[in-house]
Specification:
Elements (H helix, E strand, L loop, with lengths): L2 H11 L6 H6 L10 H16 L20 H12 L6 E7 L2 H14 L7 H17 L2 E2 L6 E6 L4 E6 L2 E9 L33 H13 L3 E6 L8 E14 L8 H12 L3 E8 L2 H9 L4 E9 L5 H9 L5 E5 L12 E15 L2 E8 L5 H6 L5 E2 L2 H5 L3 E11 L14
Parallel strand pairs: 1-2, 1-3, 7-14
Antiparallel strand pairs: 3-4, 5-7, 5-8, 6-7, 9-12, 9-14, 10-11, 10-13, 11-12
Helix pairs in contact: 1-3, 4-6, 7-8
Length: 419
């Protein structure tokens, strides 16, 4: 041990009584295999040997931490008590350090220009974390913990943050008139009024609620939020393999659930209005992937015109749109909630497959963001070109079904797919 370090130890001791934890932490990033308590005691002994004075452990209260580390067992009990009733596998510790404690140790670092100190916050989180893992058998996870315990040192309280449970799947919607997510009443904005029969909602059910209610009950959670790979119109069905989504289960007390049982519960509860296929436990990164993904979509639509046209005339006009890039100004029907600008989207494939109930049946595959109803109607010239323009007579969609949405799975979760 160099004389320089011992001179620094001597200078630190002159500030006032200091515990071995705080003394050792001033050199916390030096050497390995020692905790700060051992490091501080060793430094105190080494200084006694160098100065040839009697060794004496510190008996007074530490002026930096007030002997905080003597109460690790108490903090462990507090954290374990707050964890009671919560099912989890991984955890992480955090804390709020009183400003005076942080300022006191930072003053020494600055005054003595110490090169390798460790903050009190880091040691507290580590020591309490080790004690809690030993007491509960749970593991520490720094990236994606199930729960985070935040210790407020001043208030002597523990607040537990239960991180969401994310589940990836696909949903089909068989009933028209159901929005994808909860839609608050436009009049009362969710407060409840005569317009919404005091429910606070424009529509009594949504795909989000039909999927989320069983998940909330089974996981004993506060809520469930649906993140979809795009959305279909309220009057459109979602068929085929379904639309990819991630369900965010908020503050779940239970996490180790069977996806098969949850899937059955949702499909039974939704009673053929909505069905799901659940694939794997997901994470927030996959939510970001699904929301930012530009998945192609395929639609099956029925189209009516104001004039009688032969099937050949319709097919010729439809085929002329194949592979074409469409300029679409924000449609009138959504202009109240979306920026007014022109977007370019490509029609990847389109064909007329016949006639059904006096309507022309058309299948369209388009880039993400292509407005299909406006592709047909032209939206009073806001969409160019359109089927109406190609036909020379007004055309409009009478029904629309989404039959395919490309899936988006993040790289982290590709190896986790399971039932």
């Amino acid at each position: 041990m160099t004389d320089d370090i011992l001179e620094e130890v001597k200078a630190i001791l002159e500030y006032g009584p200091i515990c071995d934890h705080c003394l050792g932490r001033m050199f916390g990033k030096r050497s390995f295999g020692l905790n700060n308590d051992e490091r501080g005691r060793s430094l105190r002994i080494a200084l006694s040997l160098k100065e040839d004075i009697p060794f004496s452990p510190e008996k007074e209260e530490c002026w930096i931490c007030s002997n905080l580390f003597d109460r690790i067992s108490l903090w462990t009990e507090r954290v374990a008590a707050e964890f009671d009733g919560i099912e989890f596998k991984t955890m992480l510790m955090g804390c709020r350090v009183p400003p005076l404690m942080a300022e006191s140790e930072e003053m020494i670092w600055s005054d003595l220009e110490l090169q390798s100190p460790e903050p009190l916050k880091a040691e507290f989180n580590r020591e309490v974390g080790k004690a809690v893992t030993a007491a509960t058998g749970k593991e520490v996870n720094f990236r994606r913990p199930d729960v985070v315990a935040l210790c407020d040192i001043s208030a002597e309280t523990v607040d537990v943050q239960i991180n969401p449970l994310y589940i990836y799947g696909r949903y089909c919607k068989y009933e028209r008139g159901i929005p994808q997510t909860r839609w608050h009443c436009r009049i009362c904005r969710g407060e409840g009024c005569e317009r919404c029969n005091f429910t606070g909602k424009m529509y009594q059910d949504s795909v989000e609620e039909l999927i989320g209610r069983p998940a909330t009950a089974i996981c004993e959670a506060e809520d469930a939020i649906l993140h979809g790979a795009g959305r279909e119109d309220i009057d459109a069905r979602m068929l085929g393999d379904g639309r990819p989504f991630v369900l965010e289960v908020v503050r779940p007390l239970k996490r180790s659930i069977s996806l098969d049982k949850l899937e059955d519960a949702i499909n039974t509860s939704a009673k053929d209005r909505v069905s799901v296929t659940l694939d794997h436990v997901s994470d927030r990164h996959e939510v970001e992937s699904i929301k930012s993904g530009k998945a192609h979509k395929k639609y099956s639509i029925l189209v009516k015109t104001d004039s009688n046209l032969t099937l050949n005339e319709m097919c010729t006009a439809v085929n002329s749109l194949k592979g074409v890039t469409i300029g679409q100004r924000t449609p009138e029907r959504v202009s109240h909630r979306r920026a007014d600008k022109v977007r370019e989207r490509r029609v990847i494939d389109i064909e007329c497959t016949g006639v059904e109930d006096d309507n022309y049946k058309i299948e369209v595959t388009g880039e993400a963001g292509l407005y299909i109803k406006e592709l047909i109607s032209g939206d009073h010239g806001r969409t160019i070109p359109s089927l109406t323009e190609k036909l020379g007579v007004p055309a409009y969609v009478t029904s629309l079904d989404v039959v395919m949405v490309e899936g988006v799975i993040s790289e982290d979760n590709k190896s986790q797919r399971h039932r």
